[in-house]
Amino acid sequence: MSDTTERAIRTFHPRRGRMSNRHADAFAELWPELGLTVVDGDRRPLDLRELFGRDAPRVLEIGFGMGESTAAMAAADPGRDYLGIEVHTPGIGNLLALVRERSLTNVRVAHGDAMELVRRLAPGSLDAVHAFFPDPWPKARHHKRRLIQPAHVAPLRERLRPGGTLHCATDWAHYAAAMAQTLDADPGLANAHGGFAPRPAHRPVTKFEQRGVRAGREIFDLVYRRR
């Protein structure tokens, strides 16, 4: 698949919304220092050491929503750096507000297409990739927009260090099965649990997860390691 085709097929709905005063204040204060705008077609390598100002294991959080989980994991895991990417601007504002309120130094925030960002990262530069409750795109004609598909999994896996983890979660059973099939088929990945993973204690409960549980849907975690 060409880069042109990949850019044309989005894995997300462009989402805009009105920021609260709290979000807007945090954005105005912190975005110049902690923010990164991802531009389509930009292939300049992204220096993560320069971005974070230190050498540390790094986690890429794809689609962090309102950022509560990212902030909680970063606060509990100060030895790793968290780079979160989202397209929902109020969510970006909320994460920046949480970063300010909790005095977090190991979080950076990107706005734009996650796969465009991934292509700028060096192979083996990530300790983990998290994709918690990505859009399931349930209609068959939209499956090509799903994040977890072979064309995307290969570059995600390449950015992981050997032994690094790709951790996905979803509350859509059909998407969970499709994820497992796709990840099992990648020769560079190994299922860390031989099937769906038990819910890791370090993954905070997200609003999407709570919504799924209230609707009676089962939650599926998938954890794979780079060989």
Automatic annotation (TrEMBL):
Protein name: tRNA (guanine-N(7)-)-methyltransferase
GO molecular function: tRNA (guanine(46)-N7)-methyltransferase activity
Functional pathway: tRNA modification; N(7)-methylguanine-tRNA biosynthesis
InterPro entries: SAM-dependent_MTases_sf, tRNA_(Gua-N-7)_MeTrfase_Trmb, tRNA_methyltr_TrmB_bact
Function according to Swiss-Prot or TrEMBL: Catalyzes the formation of N(7)-methylguanine at position 46 (m7G46) in tRNA.
Any one GO CC term of the record: tRNA methyltransferase complex
Source organism, top-level taxon: Bacteria
Keyword Nuclease among record annotations: no
